[in-house]
Design a protein that fits this description.
The protein is of the alpha/beta class and 672 residues long. The protein has 20 helices and 20 strands.
Length: 672
């Protein structure tokens, strides 16, 4: 209670913003709110969702051309597609480029006893999601064998699958490694359930997107069917029924390119126009892929339309910094872009990434305004959260009373409150590439989670809410404008935003520390104070704060430290690692595991940190931040302490083992 009372007193020194949006004048707020259209965004979304947007495919290129055509219509003279070669041999940092994959035809039929087709079980033309990505051509008639999960050697005990098609519950690539590579199966029918959420396996009609290994020495094909259809097949097989299938697939890999549509709004300030704020999404996905991620792609396209129009009409001033829009394939396209164009990466001050932002009530999703990694503090996260909170408050007020200054409601959309959550970093999309220590670009991530239809045939435009698209577009547009225009004159207001957010974080850190042993509790609070100091320092990336703003932040930090008395920092120990600038990127590359390729499958699988689960993070998150924290200054004990503060206590030996493996693989080196 004493801490709460003191914190309340401290908030009296922080500017309260009332009902208006901080850092953006009301006329600009009104202009954005009035112009941005959820209907316009959804119309483009519907176009994307008609295309099976696999990497390097004809449909992906058509989607990129759709983006360019719209940008040209909106007045972007520099709209174009950058193509980066992808052939399986070229590397973009930690990403081995994946050859393009194309499918022309695929059908799976059940045959009667005379070999005549009786039931079509899957059709590429009707639903291309039923063919797993990276399937190879085949024309095969074979018996169906149920192998249960299909990803473990024990699943094949006493079963002869050589030359047969296996029915399996696991994702196709895991089954491929066992059924095809080890036991000689000819093909796969997978009924992998959707991603694990509260609604996992609830809808037995869903067909999930499947994928095989891109770089397999045992190429094969895989069809995806629903859980309900699979259970019917299992019941028949369990009774001893003979099921014979005919699979026809015309598909395969070929050298191609990562095509990235892009355009810019040039900065108006000669001193700042070389600096860029990037709007990012990912254009690739199986059809329909409406929320994931036609929604993010259509929304930044709508932001592009809105900003260009308002600037042309002089309703908002042109941005001081350049604003860039990019539509890449997920993660691997961003890896290619930043590795192939280091001069572009060096100019980017921040990124705003949209991946799933349109889910309506049926999806059961929660909209998130997500911070960048704790290893990379940035005032931009607090700016985005303040804008997200503003939209949340306006939408809630409108939903409850029918009146609000800026309700941000689309005529064809819903009127529910946004109910947004302002959350710490979660991984899984291109924002993690920007924010990795290879580039150190702070990225705000706007995303829906969970979504009960993600990666399935039911992720359709009918479940997309134009009001949600409008609100996501407003948050993205407003955040981008603030960052594109931020100068030293804005420092006092930015400091106020950060102070208010810091109070909430301090209270959360204090609550978390109560659940920890004394040593770990002190470490948690110590990290928080360091983080808040670095948050204020992050203004230096954009401008030099005036002395008064620096003094205010110092005064605030001193008061904050007095509320959280912490023992002295313990002595640091262990080697000092630094990222290898020649191999840039995160470990979350697609279709290629960098550590497995360099350490071997068995050794990589035994890295304890990758399998560790803490109270606020899992193995991949610990590993991501471990690489980020290896900055050539921290010892391994300091990296462990930071990881423990961010995600929960982790053993020192797990951190040491992982960094030693990363060093052996060339990702990091030891600072002598």
């Amino acid at each position: 209670m004493r801490l709460a009372i003191t914190l309340l007193g401290l908030t009296l020194t922080v500017r309260l913003f009332g009902g208006d949006l901080p850092l953006l004048p009301d006329p600009q707020v009104s202009a954005l709110a009035g112009e941005i259209s959820g209907e316009s965004a959804k119309r483009n979304l519907e176009g994307f969702s008609r295309l099976h947007r696999m990497r390097g495919s004809r449909d992906f290129h058509r989607a990129a051309e759709q983006v360019i055509a719209e940008l040209v219509k909106y007045g972007y003279a520099d709209a174009h597609i950058d193509a980066f070669p992808a052939d399986g041999r070229i590397f973009y940092g930690t990403q081995r480029s994946r050859p393009a994959w194309e499918a022309d035809f695929a059908e799976l039929w059940e045959l009667d006893g005379s070999g005549n087709p009786i039931t079509r079980m899957a059709s590429w033309d009707a639903a291309p999601i039923t063919l797993a990505e990276d399937s190879a051509s085949a024309d095969l008639t074979a018996d169906l064998v149920d192998v249960g999960d299909g990803s473990h050697e024990s699943d094949y005990a006493d079963k002869d699958v050589k030359g047969r098609i296996v029915l399996a519950a696991s994702q196709a690539d895991a089954v491929q490694r066992m059924a095809v590579a080890k036991f000689g199966a000819a093909g796969i029918v997978s009924y992998a359930a959707n991603q694990r959420t509260a609604w996992w396996k609830q809808d037995e009609t869903l067909v999930r997107w499947g994928h095989l290994e891109t770089f397999s020495s045992s190429p094969t094909f895989a069809f995806m069917i629903s859980l309900g259809d699979a259970r019917g097949l299992q019941a028949r097989l369990a009774k001893g029924e003979h099921i014979r299938l005919h699979a026809i697939v015309k598909a395969g890999q070929h050298p191609g390119s990562y095509d990235i549509a892009t355009a810019t709004i040039q900065g108006s300030d000669p001193r700042l126009r070389d600096e860029e704020i990037v709007y990012s999404c990912h254009l690739d996905h199986p059809r329909p892929g409406a929320n994931d991620n036609a929604s993010g792609c259509a929304t930044i396209l709508e932001v592009a339309r809105t900003l260009h129009k308002l600037i042309a009409e002089k309703r908002i001033p042109p941005p001081r910094r350049t604003i860039r829009f990019v539509w890449p394939p997920e993660i691997e396209g961003t890896m290619a872009l930043l590795n192939a164009k280091p001069e572009l990466a060096a100019h980017i001050k921040a990124a705003i990434h949209l991946d799933m932002v349109g889910g309506g009530p049926e999806t059961k999703t929660i909209f998130h305004v997500t911070r960048g990694p704790a290893s990379l503090p940035s005032f931009g996260y607090d700016v985005a959260a303040a804008i997200g909170s503003f939209v949340d408050a306006q939408s809630s007020r409108y939903a409850m009373s029918g009146t609000a200054k800026w309700p941000l409601v689309a005529p064809e959309g819903g009127r529910d409150a946004l109910r947004a959550a302002m959350v710490p970093l979660t991984l899984g999309s291109d924002h993690e590439v920007y924010s990795s220590s290879s580039w150190g670009i702070p990225a705000v991530y706007l995303n829906d989670w969970p979504d009960r239809f993600i990666h399935t045939n039911a992720d359709t435009p009918s479940k997309i809410d134009p009001t949600k698209l409008k609100r996501a577009g407003f948050i993205a547009a407003a955040t981008g404008l603030v960052l594109a225009n931020a100068t030293a004159a804005d420092a006092p207001e930015i400091v106020s935003v950060m102070e208010e957010a810091a109070l909430h974080r301090a209270a959360e850190a204090r609550a978390q520390s109560r659940e920890l042993p004394p040593i770990e509790a002190a470490n948690r609070l110590r990290f928080q104070l360091v983080y808040e100091a670095q948050m204020f320092d992050s203004m230096d990336r954009f401008f030099t704060p005036p002395p008064a703003a620096r003094s205010e932040s110092d005064r605030f930090l001193t008061k904050l430290a007095s509320l959280l008395p912490i023992p002295p920092t313990p002595p640091a120990s262990g080697p000092v690692y630094h990222r290898n600038p020649a191999i840039r990127g995160s470990l979350d590359a697609f279709g290629y595991d960098y550590l497995e390729a360099h350490l071997g499958h068995d050794r990589a699988a035994k890295l304890a940190l990758l399998n560790f689960e803490g109270p606020r993070g899992e193995g991949g998150e610990y590993a991501y931040e471990a690489l980020n924290l290896a900055n050539g200054k921290r010892t391994t004990s300091e990296i462990r302490d930071a990881l423990s503060a961010i995600y929960g206590p982790v053993p020192q030996e797990a951190v040491d083992q992982f960094l030693a493996g990363a060093a052996e693989g060339g990702l990091v080196g030891i600072r002598r």
